[in-house]
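User: Please predict structures.

Assistant: First:
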Amino acid sequence: MTPTAPGGTRLILVRHGEAECNVNGLVGGMRGCTGLTARGVTQASALRDRLLRTGELRGTLTFYASTLPRAVQTAEIVAPALGRVGDRPVGDDRQRDGSSGGGPRLVLDADLCELRPGDADGLSWAQFAERFAEPDWDVRPDQPIAPGGESWSGFVDRASDALRRVAEDAATRPAGPGGAVVVVCHAGVIEASLLRFLPVHPAVRRLKLRTAHASLTEWRVEDGAWTLDRYNDATPVPDSRLPGRSGSDAPGPDRDPQQA
């Protein structure tokens, strides 16, 4: 891992583990998301165990998660690995308001959620295709996914603005620049960060990346400049630890156009 430059803030984006909506082919907004599969819990637990072993995120200054259940559950699993140096690991009794344990308080932020699906929320992707015209966001990025839902361009603006806000807030805290900020979020949020903060040509609407579940993407933010230090850093999980296979082993978005 590239060392953080003096004065820089480490912003680590964690994709949630495999979710029930991923496996069941559902549009996973607040209605459609019911949390992680057993496999997703194993993936998040493997990441936590790695982080406890390496200490690479120990001393996290601030800790955020999307409000979607799959992200909240992942955050609660990895939380024990984020305690300050000298703190005991945070256990299952940790409160989201930070009232117990020595780690950072978990802040739930709706602006870190995946693309908002509006009336498509909770539908199967087959039902979505029947009821709504699937938008071609490479041609019309401003078209909403469904009534009441977001467009791709609106989502990229919202998600990247939220990440910028989180990074700027961390730089003003008493610990000062240099602290780690951990955000448990979604493949779409990670792609939005790459589109916004890498020198990607404006004509490129989507990168169509396949970001692994429970993987790490790390930015270094210093004086308004964003440098990508790592992407898609996933923790291998031996087959013997996985409770079951879920079809394709390929990581990343389970359905286009909405990432998961």
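Second:
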Amino acid sequence: MPEKDILDPDKISLNLNTKSIGKKIIVFDSTSSTNEIAARYTNNPDNDGLAVFAEEQTAGRGRAGNKWLGKKGQSILCSILITKIKISPELLTLTIAAAAAEAIGHKAKIKWPNDIILNGKKVAGILLETKKLKSYTAYILGIGINCHQNISDFPQQLQQIATSIDIETGIVTDRIALAKRLLICLEHRLESAEKHSEKIIEKWNKLSTQLHHRICLIYNGRKFTGTCIGVDPEKGLIVQLDSGAVRMFPAGQSSIAK
């Protein structure tokens, strides 16, 4: 791996020029989970924007208890602590997804609620965790992006559905440049979400793999089928069910059936 691709807090923060996101950056060679590290800083609201990166996670986790797999130095593994934002968790989920897809580029798309798709395969995932404190709510935005993996790095059962940026582009990803783009895009989209939530909805609609398509959703253990007709910043995915009824599905309790 090129020397420039080794994550370093000084290299990531160099010329970052963000107001909040990434104002403090910590990089671990190895840690159990960047979300767990970020959670240790939630008691101080002035830690808003803290970014925790790791070259390796020994107990990285995804949504619904899934594990995030990856060898050392292959991915962007990070968690961003947010303590001073005043938007709903649903809108925050949409915002993180839009920012991550925008940072990855290469025609990256969003699969409800937290997967980023490149050429039809999952290249990144998001885990949003909350911690309610006395006078504010802290949000931990966990983001994992596959960068340097080869097909053989994925377990056989994932080789048809997972990918990396290197695989899809044929170019070795500069993870420092990607980390910078991610922090910049996240700050830009968070500012937009607070002031103009409709712009986040517009961006999400543009990048969604589900909009106007027939889908099967799992919600609280039940299956629902219908056509995705939009997304609501407060209540989640809007689906016109096969019965004709229109129903909304919150991100925290719903997922697209495989």
